[in-house]
């Protein structure tokens, strides 16, 4: 019975951490949609690494500069995001680290032209000072 109680407690802790991470992911995505560089800076690690299929890797400073340029486009009206949705989310916890994979579907207008894109994404998150922080990210565009 003692071992069953321990397994139950571990299961609850894992479930709670997964829920916290998914809530953090939702907040992160909301901050990305609005290009809130300040909020995003607080949600990524100091040695953050970001890569995708169309450019080389970005460090934290480079990626936040990209986010700021995105904010300028939103403010100028040259970028409008009508849809940004993460689907098929899978989470694997490894203690104080986790991977998240899924699909991002995004639609909108950029420079007067409509776009519709689908990406496969992989995140690496780490638990630091009691909060989940994104440590790395990679995406690859799927053919539409």
Could you spell the SSE succession in H and E letters?
HHEEHEEEE
Percent helix: 25-40%
Q: How many distinct folded domains?
A: 1
Number of strands: 6
* Level-2 CATH architecture: Roll
Q: Structural class per helix/strand content?
A: alpha+beta
For the report, how would you describe the main beta sheet? 6 strands, mixed
Q: How large is the share of residues in beta strands?
A: over 45%
Poorly predicted parts? 3-13
- CA gyration radius, whole angstroms: 17 Å
CATH topology: Nuclear Transport Factor 2, Chain: A
Give the strand order of the largest sheet, numbering strands 1, 2, ... along the chain.
Answer: 2-1-6-5-4-3
Query: In whole angstroms, how far apart are the ends?
Result: 53 Å
Number of helices: 3
- What is the overall shape? globular
The CATH C-level class name: Alpha Beta
Short description:
This protein is 38% helix and 49% strand. It has 144 residues and is α+β, with helices and mostly antiparallel strands.
Description:
- Strands 2-1-6-5-4-3 form a six-stranded mixed sheet.
- The chain is an alpha+beta fold.
- 38% of the residues lie in helices and 49% in strands.
- The chain has a single domain (2-142), classed as Roll (Nuclear Transport Factor 2, Chain: A), CATH 3.10.450.
- The chain starts with a helix and ends with a strand.
Question: What is the element layout, followed by pairings?
Answer:
Elements: H1 2-33, H2 37-41, E1 44-52, E2 55-59, H3 60-76, E3 79-93, E4 97-110, E5 113-128, E6 131-142
Parallel strand pairs: 1-6
Antiparallel strand pairs: 1-2, 3-4, 4-5, 5-6
